[in-house]
Specification:
Blueprint: H1 28-42, E1 49-53, E2 68-71, H2 77-87, E3 92-98, H3 99-105, H4 107-116, E4 120-126, E5 129-130, E6 136-137, H5 161-168, E7 172-177, H6 181-193, E8 198-203, H7 216-219, E9 221-222, H8 231-239, E10 245-251
């Protein structure tokens, strides 16, 4: 990237020349637009941003951005993002993925990322289906969603992302809807600027395998309450949530994890010598 970056950047300046290959109507297009608007509003320079992802349709997003990016392994985006932030605390680290990548194979990493409270923003584009691998039920799929792959539905309770993130210690918890790009951009601004681990679930329809999700635009609604800094109050609210409340649920005040970078690590002995035969 050129060092001569204008001081005032537009959302389009954060988009790469790579054309997105998402299906027509995919909500991830709007998420990409919202994210570029958010970083432009914060006035971050491209070289100050690192976007890390795993595997899945939504995890392709680093390729479509003009900033540092890393497309990692399935479910391993958060460990990668953690390493980047600890090694380069000067960077704004944003982690992105989908409900399969984040809540299934990557579910354990989500718990501990929330607990560690490192200053990362984690965006999960949730469409309640494995879109890249042809429509299998995901962790957030309703138990009665009938499909050719799962006749009659998966039959098990879905994963509740906001509940898990809050209980695990995330310092910022919110839900957005991709069909509201302006509102989503503002929530992302709040998440990125809030210290500590920020978790944002974005309802992002997969109209290819879940055409019923076109109805989400009629079902989403602003949360009837303002954000709270009281975790117990946030827990009571989220446990009665209908899954379509949009807005910031929780803004915590827990001190983020901080790592001193550049500190020399010294050993009293040469450990390598102990392994010589």
């Amino acid at each position: 990237m050129s060092a001569r970056v204008p001081s005032k950047l537009k959302a389009s300046d954060y988009k790469s020349d790579t054309r997105p290959v998402w299906c027509p109507g995919c909500g991830d297009f709007h998420v990409l637009h919202s994210l570029t608007r958010a970083v432009a509003q914060i006035a971050l320079r491209p070289e100050e941003i690192a976007v890390i992802s795993g595997i899945g349709c939504s995890s392709r997003i680093p390729a479509y951005l003009n900033c540092y990016g890393f497309h990692g392994l399935h479910g391993r985006a958060l460990p990668l993002a953690t390493g980047v932030k600890v090694a380069r605390p000067d960077l704004t680290v944003i982690c992105a993925g989908g409900d399969g990548d984040g809540f299934s194979i990557g579910g354990n990493h989500l718990l501990h990322a929330c607990r560690r409270n490192i200053d990362i923003t984690y965006i999960v584009m949730d469409n309640e289906v494995y879109g890249m691998t042809k429509g299998q039920p995901s962790p957030t799929t309703a138990p009665d969603w009938d499909s050719k792959i799962a006749p009659g539905g998966p039959g098990i309770s879905p994963f509740y992302p906001l509940v898990i993130a809050l209980a695990s210690g995330a310092n910022f918890v919110a839900r957005a809807f991709s069909g509201d790009p302006n509102g989503t951009a503002q929530i992302l601004v709040d998440a990125i600027e809030h210290p500590g681990f920020s978790f944002v679930q974005i309802l992002s329809p997969c109209v290819t395998f879940r055409p019923d999700q076109r109805e989400w635009k009629k079902q989403v609604h602003p949360a009837p309450v303002t954000p709270t800094s009281d975790a117990a109050q946030a827990a009571r609210r989220v446990m009665t949530d209908d899954g379509f409340n949009i807005g910031v649920l929780y803004k915590g005040s827990r001190e983020p994890y901080r790592q001193t970078v550049g500190q020399e690590i010294r050993f009293d002995r040469n450990i390598d010598e102990e392994f010589l035969i």
